[in-house]
Specification:
heterodimer; A: 2 domains; B: mainly beta; Porin; 2 domains; 20-stranded antiparallel beta sheet; two-stranded antiparallel sheet; 5 helices
């Protein structure tokens, strides 16, 4: 009896410690990855340097555009601020624009150098507007400068200049051409692509936890705040870019799936329509070949990366 | 990279250990007790049944199966390297320093031994096959894999040795209290494989992905197939057994001393030796210190002078395949076999029916040595039956309860020992919560003379019989001498 009891006790002891669920031969060793479902990985993608020469309006450089704007704008802004709100300039409510133009005209009446600048600009670009007024043998600049205070010609000259300034400033914020650039192929290994796109799902059925996004930051050296909806041609990826003068601002994340990333890796083409917002009058632009904007793009993977 | 990681995890998981179970150290009837201390001898001569006479498996180190295999959030068991296992869960069971696992197995292919005429000196011959594996993986590696944290990884290695030893053992008394023994072994190396990551620095950050690594792989095998690409890059390794890939020698030395009638101390140093792996069987691969950096594609956008833009893109070469193992010049290598030290003390009570034993066991070599202390109570109410429960403290970090049984009546010698009894087991009785496991099994056939080393085990009739035989032998010698004199 004692022997049976002892044997039973031993058997019970052994069997009590068995977990049938733990089947070593049923363990999946194939899945290997870096991180897990709560991990975040960030990878640099591109460092884009936009030179001043890339920012144009037709055949005119950004520098030219704002050099003319400086002429049409008063040296001291009426509201005492340091920046011109370019969006208000283009809005239908023209009181802001009208105030600036009138301040310019008033400054021209009081400051000969301002008047001479306006006169030279008109002669260089808008001489045809004064064809009917300028006598033969006299330059347009000379006519404007010499008759700005005249009782008869002065109001006509002021009116013409006001019209020219108003037309120019009204179109200033939308004057920049869309920048279309092609990055070409990024020679990034397929293994890296697979790591990044693993477990993302599809745009219609995205994964519950894994995700991939593109984001970045932009540093602006031009005294113009601007905004852009940067799109990657051939994909539905759009980045909202908000560049502030002298600052580095963040570019919010945009979701990314495998097909879009493949397109970006194989031949990224960017379309960058630029909307100008604020102009910091009195601040210098970089030189023609110098850096205007620096955009750093990165990828953010949430979830594991399978090897 | 993935293949190497999967191999490491799978091998760790399925490796079942072999080596000697410390509970057997004080079991007087076992036929392989002399492997612990060459001064020991069984109670009788023996012939081991090839293939099942001595199978010993063990692991030691710091990793248990449940440290490398976890249940993920879907309820499935998977390796901790899977992304479906959270970092917290995966890292919880790991040491902050080096995570080591040594897995060893020994199979006795052939063995026989016999007592000399004096019934106290004993000699034996054994042929054993050994497989020894060692894994050293630093915590920083797991931290990088699970958290993606930048890390400097040093000293990671995987090593496998297979060899056969042919040994001759002799144990003899120097006086009534002191026995000494030695085993000389000729070692035949069958295969060796080692991969060592000398260093790896890796960083995954927003502004830069960076990895630099230096590693080498060495294979010594005559039967294996090592595939190399045309440019010399390592492709694959298929293990196979061919002729010897190396030779060596080792020696075991031991002694026992009866301090008092019931108190015995013993000391042995085993496996002092080496294996010299042949250059002709060598395949050596190394990565030169390789660096991968990626800080993003550099793009320069400037005007083209005609109102448009032109883009220039910097060169990019970001490929994980840049980390390659390239074949180098073959070179031989001499490696020390991992030596062990056994120091024991046993006190017998109740007319040699119960023994209280304490054993210190140390295994040298590898990343770090392992030490453990085993306390046992040895019940041997009769000379053919021994039952030994034991408790082992391992490196101050783990413990195990063991049980050993030896039955050696006249016609069979059966031995079974394990320390996996009380741990939790998975299916097929595989323990998964212990970082140290032992299992030993053996069947042999007793032959030849019985030992006179332990008085309590010797029957009076056997003494009388021995005395008569010696007297007859002495008489025959005297008769021969007399005839020669005539």
């Amino acid at each position: 009896m004692k022997k049976i009891l002892l044997a039973s006790l031993c058997a019970l002891t052994l069997t009590a410690c068995i977990d049938d669920d733990f089947d070593l031969f049923d363990v999946d060793f194939g899945q290997v990855g870096i991180g897990g479902e709560t991990s975040d990985f960030r990878m640099p993608l591109a460092n884009i340097t936009v030179r001043m020469s890339a920012l144009t309006s037709g055949e005119r450089s950004l520098l030219d555009v704002f050099e003319e704007a400086d002429t049409w704008l008063p040296t001291v802004l009426p509201d005492g601020g340091d920046a011109v709100d370019l969006r208000l300039l283009t809005s239908d409510a023209d009181s802001y624009r009208t105030a600036l133009v009138r301040a310019t005209l008033d400054e021209a009446a009081a400051d000969a150098s301002k008047l001479n600048g306006i006169a030279a600009l008109v002669e260089r670009r808008y001489a045809s507007a004064f064809d009917d007024m300028v006598p033969a043998g006299m330059s347009v600049a000379g006519f404007i400068a010499g008759n700005y205070a005249d009782a008869v010609y002065g109001p006509i000259i002021r009116s013409s200049i006001e019209g020219l300034a108003d037309d120019y400033l009204a179109g200033l914020s939308a004057s920049l051409d869309t920048v279309e650039c092609e990055i070409g192929s990024m020679d990034i290994d397929d293994d890296v692509f697979d790591m990044l796109t693993d477990g993302l799902g599809t745009p219609d059925e995205p994964h519950a936890t894994n995700s991939l996004a593109i984001y970045g930051r932009v540093e602006s050296l031009i005294p113009v705040d601007c905004r852009s909806e940067v799109s990657f041609v051939g994909t539905d990826v759009v980045l909202a870019l908000d560049a502030r003068y002298g600052q580095t601002t963040e570019i919010a994340e945009a979701s990314l799936f495998a097909p879009a990333l493949r397109t970006i890796f194989d031949n990224a083409r960017l379309s960058v329509p630029v909307e100008l917002e604020r102009y910091y009058k009195g601040c210098a632009f970089p030189g023609e070949g110098q850096t205007a904007l620096t955009v750093r793009l990165s990828l953010h993977k949430h979830g594991g990366m399978s090897l | 990279m993935k293949k190497i990681l999967v191999s490491i995890l799978a091998a760790v998981a399925v490796a079942s250990a072999a080596a000697q179970t410390q509970a057997a150290y004080f079991m007087e009837g076992t036929t392989f007790r002399s492997r612990f201390n060459p001064a020991f001898a069984p109670l009788r001569g023996y012939f081991n049944i090839p293939g099942i006479s001595g199978i010993a498996l063990n692991t030691d180190g710091g990793l248990s199966l449940d440290a490398v295999v976890k249940r993920n959030r879907h309820g499935e068991f998977t390796s901790i390297l899977s992304p479906s296992v959270s970092a917290g869960q995966a890292l919880a069971g790991l040491s902050r320093g080096m995570n080591s696992l040594n897995a060893n197995s020994t199979v006795n292919i052939l063995g026989f031994g016999m007592y000399a005429r004096n019934r106290k000196s004993f000699w034996s011959v054994d042929v054993n096959a050994h497989v020894e594996t060692a894994f050293d993986v630093p915590y920083e590696f797991f931290d990088f894999i699970k958290n993606g944290n930048s890390n400097s990884i040093r000293g990671m290695q995987v090593c496998l040795d297979t060899y056969v030893d042919v040994g001759f053992n002799y144990s003899m008394p120097l006086n009534d209290r002191l026995y000494v023994g030695a085993r000389v072994k000729f070692l035949v190396g069958l295969a060796r494989a080692q991969m060592q990551l000398d260093r790896m620095d890796v960083s995954l950050r927003d502004e830069l992905w960076y990895a630099t690594a230096a590693a080498h792989m060495d294979f010594y095998s005559n039967g294996s197939v090592v595939k190399v690409k045309d440019d010399g890059e390592f492709d694959s390794f298929e293990f196979g057994m061919g002729g010897p890939a190396g030779y060596g020698a080792a020696i075991d030395l031991g002694a026992t001393y009866d301090v008092l009638e019931n108190l015995q101390v013993s000391l042995a140093v085993n496996d002092l030796g080496f294996i010299s792996w042949k250059k002709s069987a060598a395949y050596n691969f190394a990565t030169t210190s390789q660096t991968i950096t990626f800080g993003g594609v550099d793009v320069d956008v400037e005007g083209d002078g005609a109102g448009g833009v032109q883009t220039s893109t910097g060169d990019v070469d970001f490929s994980l395949e840049d980390m390659k193992f390239m074949q180098g010049e073959s070179r031989g290598a001499t490696r020390m076999v991992r030596a062990t030290v056994n120091a024991g003390v046993e006190y017998e009570v109740w007319r040699h029916k119960v023994g209280l034993g304490l054993l210190y066991h140390a295994r040298m070599g590898g990343y770090k040595s392992s030490h453990n202390l085993t306390a046992s109570v040895n019940f041997h109410p009769v000379r053919w039956f021994t039952l030994t429960p034991s408790y082992t403290f391992n490196n101050n970090s783990a413990h195990a309860v063991g049980l050993a049984l030896n039955l050696c009546p006249n016609w069979i010698n059966l031995f079974l020992a394990t320390d996996m009894l009380l741990s939790r087991h998975g299916r097929y009785f595989i323990p998964y919560k212990q970082s140290r496991m032992n299992f030993t099994f053996g069947v042999g056939v007793p032959i030849g003379r019985r030992s006179f080393r332990i008085d309590e085990y010797v029957k009076e009739s056997e003494y009388i019989d021995y005395a008569c035989r010696e007297a007859r032998r002495a008489q025959r010698r005297a008769d021969r001498a007399s005839r020669r004199a005539d």
